[in-house]
Amino acid sequence: MKENNIEELERQFQEKIDNDIKIEPRDWMPDAYRDTLIRQISQHAHSEIVGMLPEGNWITRAPNLRRKAVLLAKVQDEAGHGLYLYSAAETLGADREETIDDLHSGKAKYSSIFNYPTLSWADMGAIGWLVDGAAIMNQVPLCRCSYGPYARAMVRVCKEESFHQRQGFEIMTTLANGTPEQKAMAQDALNRFWWPALMMFGPNDAESKHTEQSMRWKIKRQTNDELRQQFVDITVPQAEMIGLTIPDADLKFNTETGHYEFGEINWDEFWQVVKGNGPCNKDRVDARRKAKENGMWVREAAAAYAEKRANRNKEKRA
Ligand code: BYC
């Protein structure tokens, strides 16, 4: 295509975005917009699926039947989110198997938060409250993302995340009001998950290589730092309400700005985890790889059966 034609298509594309008209799968879009979405959506899908592992670890050890049923439902929801998201990536021409292979080879990322271990039952509370809380903060703006299928998937995902956040906060509230040992367990979980939850929003804006362009394309509607600040502002009073202490000596409320100021995130730790050197990276990827290998015979049997049926139907029609 001639260069001026491309320029005109790009101009029309940006005009649609500026007027908040959704981009749909068959619409023309710049290659870089498609690639950015495939990267973000497939990594988001991987995060949902890998995110099942730390909580799945506690299903058999939930303290009672109600807790077990709720946790099971939550973990199943995460599988559903992963499936919507892989489908959304497919509408852009991504091959699901290839994106999953990229996860297994370490080429594709997934959220840093899932590379931390879940050591006690209180971690189920901390994950629901903080991790799903951070996920909602990040995903509500994605419901207004310029790409239609992603935005629509996020509407349903956010409704479910909000139930997840509440179940986590309920676990934390119960533990914080329980015996001294239970309260200590809740505090320990908060201590371990607070900083990794802040890291979920990604690098500071000045270090974020994709934010500026993604904001122009309205894939991202708020920056990493804006969302992180909103999360801190909402979550600190919740911790106070249940009598737990945020593990940050520098945390203080600024009455002039109306925001909490917080300490420096350990970015070295963040990048180590993102690069694959976190406490559980190897276990997480190994578990996903094993799941694929162990399920291979089921997929092969289903494919063979589908082929057999198709051949039988062809013979009948002949
Ligand atoms: N962990 O330029 P930046 C969930 C990477 S799951 C790992 O700011 P961007 C849930 C980033 O990918 C939560 N990597 O990037 C499930 C980029 O590397 P690449 C997942 C991170 O894309 C189960 C590089 O750093 N949510 O909700 O503009 C149970 C530079 O970053 C992280 C989503 O995926 C990180 N934390 O912004 C409970 C939401 N942060 O790709 C809960 C959708 C950054 O160039 N995604 N990186 O190799 C997003 O909103 C954006 O992709 C991010 C990063 C805000 C995460």
UniProtKB/TrEMBL annotation:
GO CC annotations, alphabetized: cytosol
TM stretches of this protein: none
PANTHER family: 1,2-PHENYLACETYL-COA EPOXIDASE, SUBUNIT A (PTHR30458:SF2), PHENYLACETIC ACID DEGRADATION PROTEIN PAA (PTHR30458)
Protein name, per record: 1,2-phenylacetyl-CoA epoxidase subunit A
EC number: 1.14.13.149
A GO BP entry: phenylacetate catabolic process
Pfam families: PaaA_PaaC
Coiled coil region boundaries: none
One GO MF term attached to the UniProt entry: phenylacetyl-CoA 1,2-epoxidase activity
Keywords for this protein: Oxidoreductase
Provenance organism: Taishania pollutisoli
